[in-house]
Amino acid sequence: MKIQFREFNPFDLWIWLEFKTIPSSMEKQYIEEVFNAWFYLGKLGAFNAENLQVQDQGIDISYMEYETGTANSVMMALMHNMTEFQYRGVWGRCWFDLGTSDLIALDILINALNQLSKEYVTINRLIIGGENENWKAEDKNQSIFIEN
């Protein structure tokens, strides 16, 4: 899977997928579940790089003392909105407002999509941000936002 970054605006972000073939309904379901799960984790503040206590601890986390005060004192890192996933031929896309979530969210999404591409649906290219010359991004219609 080739990964490309284009113009990046976390409050107005299109993510594009180019598949090897037109995805089947089952493949579309896999893709949508990954993006929905990623978004809901983001809405709950999961992608907060200021609170990575376990990661920062290192390999030995046996009997680690987790500081809930630290977790509660850092700035919230919440995603705000996404549209429904859309398809056109071998392309798929989704729009996001990443809000204040940290960029670790993109690493996690890339890791998930890379594994999904290896096992379930071949993704030739992931494009993060900018425009896609094969499918122009029109203004987002409020009716395509996912309801909370």
What does this structure look like?
The protein is of the alpha+beta class and 148 residues long. The protein has a domain at 1-47 and 76-129: Alpha-Beta Plaits. It contains four helices and six strands; from the N terminus they run ββαααβββαβ. Strands 1, 2, 3, 4, 5 and 6 form a six-stranded mixed beta sheet that branches. α1 runs antiparallel to α4. The mean pLDDT is 90.
Task: Summarize the structure in short.
The chain has 148 residues and is α+β, with helices and mostly antiparallel strands. It is 31% helix and 20% strand.
Number of continuous helical runs: 4
- Specify Rg, calculated over alpha carbons: 17 Å
* Secondary-structure class: alpha+beta
How would you sum up the global shape? globular
Order of helices and strands: EEHHHEEEHE
CATH class of the domain at 1-47 and 76-129: Alpha Beta
Second-tier CATH architecture of the domain at 1-47 and 76-129: 2-Layer Sandwich
Residue ranges: pLDDT <50 for 5 or more in a row?
none
